[in-house]
Every structure is written in C-alpha cells, then in structure tokens.
C-alpha cells in the first residue's frame, strides 16, 4: 500500500509506546473505526479518558492517519499479510498489529458497504428497443426523405426503472454501435488481465 508521508508519520507515532501506551493505542484504533462507521460526526470522539494525556495535535494526526489507513486497506481488500507487512515497515509491534487486524476484521464488512454506497453509479441498461421512422418533410424544407431511429434504453438505477429515449440518424447509430463494440472489447481485455 502506498501511503503519504503524513499518514506514515501518524502511524509511526502510533507505534511509539511513549506516545501511545497499549490501552491508548487500542482505544484510538477502536475510535477510528467507530468514527468511520458513525452516521453523524461526533465532536467528542477523541475525548476518551484513555486519550486525555496525549498531545491533542499528535492525537488528531494519529487519528487521521489511522482512518486513512483503514479506508485504504478496505478499498484494496487487504489481507492480514498485506496489513502486517505495511504496519511492520512503520515499526508497529506484532501485538499492536494484532489489535489493529482484529478490529479490521470485525468492521471490514460494514466499511465495505459504506464505501460501496459512496459515489455515483450510472444506470444499468436492462433492455433496448428501437423503431425506424422516416422523415418526409419538415417545416423548413418540403422534402427531407431521411430515415432516423427512435431508440429507447430501459435502465435501472438503485432498483428504480428509468427509460432513456433519443433519436439518431443512420450514421449516428453506426457510430454508437462501433463505440459500444470498442467498449465491449476493452472490457473483455481488462477482465482477462
């Protein structure tokens, strides 16, 4: 995992027993997971009695580093060996790594759901229908004599059906089909890697 220097410094301060004793480390790890999973921001999340003696700036830096590391680990679906090797490089003891990993396992599924719910997903196309029409004339020109297609994409977004309708000429439809074929080939190549 690639981590920024500030995240690395924050995690290294968590490794230092003079900054965070064992109970302070355990509480900070627990608080970091809870702060990510709480639906509202709790301003007193770092006001735990075990954390009162720690410098507030160091505490906030370490909390930010821990939450960033947690989110990065969940995003990359990191396993125990990946997390352990990364934290060992930052000089965390085996005991602290075990504390962190047990909390990670306990909350991983909830965090995966949280991350999956963030962001914008495009609608999924479930069906396509089309109809060929023919323009005979328009208000500006007496004779147009041009075919065009009425395309209807039946989509589903967040479980709700939604239709997208548009018209296009033969050339535009050929261009669309070509681009869809290119996209399908790219997806196929990407899935084979």
UniProtKB/TrEMBL annotation:
**What range(s) does the COMM domain occupy?**
124-191
Q: Which domain of life is it from?
A: Eukaryota
- Give any single GO term for biological process: sodium ion transport
Q: What is stated as this protein's family in its record?
A: Belongs to the COMM domain-containing protein 3 family.
List the protein's name. Answer: COMM domain-containing protein 3
Q: Which organism is it from?
A: Sphaeramia orbicularis (orbiculate cardinalfish)
């Amino acid at each position: 995992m690639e981590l920024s220097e500030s995240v690395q410094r924050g995690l290294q301060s968590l490794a230092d027993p003079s900054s965070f004793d064992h109970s302070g480390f355990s509480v900070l790890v627990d608080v970091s997971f809870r702060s990510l999973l709480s639906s509202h921001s709790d301003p007193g999340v770092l006001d735990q009695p075990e954390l009162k003696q720690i410098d507030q700036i160091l505490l906030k830096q370490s909390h930010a580093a821990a939450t960033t590391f947690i989110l990065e680990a969940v995003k990359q679906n990191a396993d125990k060996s990946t997390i352990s090797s990364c934290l060992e490089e930052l000089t965390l003891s085996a005991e602290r790594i075990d504390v962190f990993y047990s909390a990670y396992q306990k909350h991983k599924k909830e965090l995966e759901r949280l991350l999956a719910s963030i962001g914008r997903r495009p609608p999924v196309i479930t069906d396509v229908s089309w109809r060929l029409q023919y323009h005979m004339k328009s208000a500006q020109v007496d004779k147009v004599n041009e075919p065009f297609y009425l395309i209807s994409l039946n989509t589903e977004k967040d479980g709700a059906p939604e239709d997208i309708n548009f018209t296009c000429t033969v050339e535009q439809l050929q261009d669309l089909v070509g681009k869809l074929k290119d996209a399908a080939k790219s997806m196929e190549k990407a899935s084979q890697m």
